Amino acid sequence: QVQLVESGGGLVQAGGSLGLSCVASGRLPGATTMGWYRQVPGKQRELVATVSSGGTTNYADSVEDRFTISRDNRKNTIYLQMDNLKPEDTAVYYCNARRAVTPQLTVWGEGTQVTVSS
Question: For 42, what's the count of Cα atoms within 13 Å in the CB-facing half-sphere?
Answer without folding.
Answer: 0
